[in-house]
Structure formats: C-alpha cells, structure tokens
Amino acid sequence: MASKAKAKSVSASSLNREPQRFLARAAEGKPVRIKVNGKGNVELLSEKKLKELRRRARLNHKFMEWLESWNETQEILADQAMMDAIRRSEEDVNAGRCRLWTK
C-alpha cells in the first residue's frame, strides 16, 4: 500500500507569498493544508490524488451496499418463519398455484 503523505500546513499569507512552491508540492501528490484564520480548513490536492479519493469513495459506497445486502440476507436466513414462507412460495410456484399479476 502506498504511504500517506502528511499534509503540510501553511498560512494563507504564506501561500500568497510563495504560491508556486505550494502548488508544486500539491502537484507532486503531497497535500497542502491552508490555514485560514488559524484553522486548517482548505486543502490543495493534485488532480491525480483527487481522482484516487473519488475512486476510493465509489469503491467504499459499493462495498457498503454489498455489506447491507449481505446483512439483510443473513437476517432472512436466520428468520425461520420467513424461510418457511419462502419455501412455501417456491412450492406454490413449482406446483402452478400462482397467477401472473397484472393491473
């Protein structure tokens, strides 16, 4: 796994004095945190780093959807009454004891 570059904290006035220095650092994939009024509330990231963060967010979202689905499946499998109802429904379908639902 790639090492995480720690964000360098700079004041907004430092960024104003030496913008190329900090922009170059961000372009190299090293984040720069800009302190505005003493707080680190703005961060410069390279486009590559931003794309990577977006990719990870999408993967995390897909994983969370899968995990929720898996948990729901486990809850159904653990519910004996629900499993019995599903089995009876499958038997009804296989025996032809169902109709096509139309509006």
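Above is the first protein from milestone M3; the second protein from the same milestone is given next.
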Amino acid sequence: MTRTNGKSEVKAEELDPEHELPASDDASDVVGEVEPRDAEFLKLKAERDTLLDRLARLQAEFENARKRGSREQQEFREYALADTIKTLLPVVDSFERALHTGRDTKSEFRSGVELIYKQLQGALLKLGLQPIPAKGEQFDPHLHEAIEMVDTTDAADHEVLDEMQRGYKLKDRLLRPAMVKVARNPKH
C-alpha cells in the first residue's frame, strides 16, 4: 500500500514507527496549527466553489447571448426580406389587373406578360411568399380585411364572396391581409 503527499510516494513498509518524531508537549500548538490550515482550506474551497459557480453562470449567459444574437440576426433577415417583398406586391397587383382585363385576347404581348408574371410568382414563392386563399372561405379577421358586407341568401353567413385585393403571407407571417367582400346572411 502506498501513501502520497502529492509530491513523492512513500511505501508503508518503509515507515519506521520507532524513529518517528515525538508528539508535541503543547497540545494547543497542534490544534492551533491545524485550525488555521483547515480554515484556510475551507476558505479556498468556498472561493473555488464560488468561482466555479460564477464560471458556469457566465458560460450559460454567453451561450444564451450567442443564441439570442443568432435568432435576432435571422429575424432581421426575414424582416428585410418582408420589406422587400412588400414593395413588390403592388407590381404583382398591377400584373394581375393587366392580365384580368385582357383575358379574352390572345397576343404575343399578352403571352409575354403572362410569362413575366409567372416568373415573378415563381421567384416570390421560392422566397416563401404564399397567397392567402379568400374566395369561398370563411371570413378570418386575422387573414382578411372586410371592405364590404353584402346581404345575400346565396352564401353562408361570413363567407368571403369576392376578393378585391389578394393577401399574402411570408412563411407564417402576415404581410398583407386580403381585402374582401363578405356575405351577411340574415337566415343564419
């Protein structure tokens, strides 16, 4: 069996109990020497525990700050994308109105405009833009903006009759609500 003092190893059989130093006559001297050492040890241990706790807290705080920074950066990207797409929505509306007015005529010009419109729609879809379904749907104040209430018995109460302007969502975020005419059915 070996005993160590942290610097060298001493084997138990090498110890000679007959040649050990005699015990001190002053017992208070031994107690007095042990107590400051124990007190210093306890003080250092408490300081170490405090520093380890502080280190753990700072590491957690740093990790939280890193995650928060990453999340804020992603939200900023999405917000910047949302602003850019919002500026393009009137252009999309103009394309839809132009294609809606001359739908009976077939010309090369119309075909070119339809092609450009489809390309724009495809690019916006890749960025995450989604049109909000409106016509025939139940009115949802979170997605639709009622422009007019129409009294009718041909549709269910609060059903969207017509879409005046298409609404859009970017991923899960509402960019623009759909402007709609809503049915008011007195029978329901």
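Note on the second protein: The chain is about 50% helix and 20% strand.
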